[in-house]
Amino acid sequence: MKKYRIRGFVMADSILALTVVTLGIVTLMVCQRQLASQQAKHDTKLMAARLVKESSDQLYATGRTAVIKRGNYRAVAVPGQVTVYHGARLVVSLRK
Question: What's the CA gap between 88 and 82, in Å, rounded?
């Protein structure tokens, strides 16, 4: 290994390497957060789709209004319309 006579070059090289590593870590953290956000959205949509199917099947089988609750989700099926709520927020509304 070469012996550097200029100490500033070694320090600049180390700072550059630290910057590259830091940028890599920050990029990884941002990507991880985005993936978690996408996963949560997909989970919500999947749960809503399942509840729409269950409530519409129950409406078809019984002929009466169907209300299904799973955790914070609530699906209401009436003739001609199915809605799914997560808390007070409307997730899906399907009309005939």
Answer: 15
Q: What is the dihedral of CA 95, 39, 37, 93, to 10 degrees?
A: 10
pTM of the model: 0.72
Side-chain-side CA neighbours of residue 12 (13 Å)? 5
Q: For residue 19, which amino acid is it?
A: T
Please calculate the CA angle 74-80-45 and round it to the nearest 5 degrees. Answer: 40
Rounded CA gap, 96 and 86, in Å? Answer: 22
pLDDT category at 48 given cuts 50, 70, 90 is very high
Centroid of chain to Cα 62: 34
Report which DSSP code applies to 88. Answer: T
Q: Report the alpha-carbon angle 84-85-86, nearest 5.
A: 130
